[in-house]
């Protein structure tokens, strides 16, 4: 399936905690690239999405 990518206006750690609190799962470590940082997650239905932040 497809993976959507979302930009978080909040610190990435805060966004990741919201994923966990709301029944999602974080499936990658935080990866740092020159443009910022990202992590891959699954929502409670198993849909894949990436979170991007600075």
The average pLDDT value, as a whole number, equals 96
CATH superfamily: 2,3-Dihydroxybiphenyl 1,2-Dioxygenase, domain 1
At the first level of CATH, what is the class? Alpha Beta
- Indicate the proportion of strand residues: 35-45%
- How many distinct folded domains? 1
Secondary structure category: alpha+beta
Helix content range: 10-25%
Annotated CATH topology: 2,3-Dihydroxybiphenyl 1,2-Dioxygenase, domain 1
| CATH hierarchy: architecture | Roll
Q: How large, in whole angstroms, is the Cα Rg?
A: 10 Å
Low-confidence stretches: none
Q: Please describe the biggest sheet, giving its number of strands, its sense, and whether it closes into a barrel.
A: 5 strands, mixed
Shape: globular
Write the layout of secondary structure elements.
Blueprint lengths: L3 E4 L4 H10 L3 E2 L4 E3 L2 E7 L5 E6 L1
Parallel strand pairs: 1-5
Antiparallel strand pairs: 2-4, 3-4, 4-5
């Amino acid at each position: 399936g497809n993976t959507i990518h979302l930009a978080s206006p909040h610190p990435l750690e805060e966004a990741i905690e919201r994923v966990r609190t709301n029944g999602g799962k974080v499936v990658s470590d935080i990866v740092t690239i020159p443009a910022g940082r990202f992590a891959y997650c699954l929502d409670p239905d198993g849909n894949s999405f990436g979170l991007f932040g600075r």
